[in-house]
Amino acid sequence: MKYARIKGTNDIYGEEMSYWYMIEESTRKIAKLFGYSEIRTPIIEPTELFVRSVGEETDIVQKEMYTFEDKGGRSITLRPEGTAPVVRAFIENSFINKGFPQRYFYIGPMFRYERPQKGRQRQFHQVGFELFGSESSLADAEVIYLAVKLLKEIGLTKFKVVINSIGCEKCRPQYREALKEYYAKHLDEVCDDCKRRYNTNILRLLDCKVDVEIADKAPRSIDYLCDECKEHYNNLKKYLKMLDVDFEEDHKLVRGLDYYNRTVFEIRHDLLGAQSAIAGGGRYDRLIEMMGGKSVSALGFAMGMERLIIAMKAENVKVPPALVNHVYIAHVGDVIEAALNIAEDLRRNNITVVFDVMERGLRAQLKHADRIGALLAIIVGENELSEDFVVVKDMESGEDSKVDINFVVDFVLDKLKEIM
RNA sequence: GUGGCCAUAGCUCAGCUGGUAGAGCGCCUGACUGUGGAUCAGGUGGUCGUGGGUUCGAAUCCCACUGGCCACCCCA
What we know:
RNA-binding, alpha+beta, eight-stranded mixed beta sheet, BirA Bifunctional Protein, domain 2
């Protein structure tokens, strides 16, 4: 093999494409229903953008970024996540002048240098939603509700929503202290990773898979929330119930990106393997100001498209084919102009027409028509044409019909309606 | 970055304790010079992931590397 894909990347084509179309179309549909407009940001950004927003100490920044120097000596990074670029665009283009709230969504590739495994690649794809300007729990509820609606739209049912609140800059320090105090007593019992994280990111000790029991008994962030955060969290739960969104509370849910505050949530799927989170997000009220903008409340989430597809397959979700070849046009002999005209007439009526460009015999043409799954084949031949008709073959039944050349479009439309 | 399993034809795989590569499917052609799917016949197809070592001889044993899958770490 001369050239091969870069490790952790994939070619997406054929049948597989139907899943991608399904997710993309559902995303646009739900976005439209909730009033979110699409934003497309560059795949490359200044390295500093992610270092500042995602957090210097996070694994993403420490070891997972695709970073390189361009010819002008600037440090460039392939985006590892979608929120920071949207926030950058928000600030850079003065979206703030458009009033609040503002709703955006994005779809696109992300890059993280990690060891590939099930549900994880180095180039992966996310759909994400961001809502700017509202501090109200109504916004949190809307975003979570929207995520659930989208998952249902693509046919998933076996997922659960998990929420937590990790407080704000006012109350989190106390909680952090409480955790430190608690874990200080257990430091000799926990695993090496936990010992390391005790200093780097104390919150992450909670979702350790080794020292589960110790984490279970650890202080809970919701017991340390200030009054505002507590009310915010309680309202969120109230609104989610109004919206009929089933959720679980998990006081051990914290998230790896530094910019979150208050609400954090995750949606997990049972049939997925180790990487069970198909969506994750939360509130990031301080991020925009931290990045040099005005103080603007915001929140959002992202879904991993590859993981959604794994979940769809695990749940046996039926997806419509990405491409249906309605009509194949076979031509034999000196009839090309007539055949081209028929193709044009059909396409003008939104019928997919595949035209023979190999100039092979009829047998080979029909074989190809069969292979590409054409519903109908139109045979344009010299004999028939001299009497102003063509043969339309139903590829499923094999039945041939003689059709007047002036009524081909009508006949095909009727026939397609009948068999589709 | 760490660990386990794996790598033979386009695909799925066989190849016993080392003796110089095979099947099924696919693809092409013909039977059928203007009617696909079925059948039959013929054909196409592999530096056995790469490099090194052991050996008279390596797809087979050993080492390294690369890649894949799964898990850890972390995350969508």
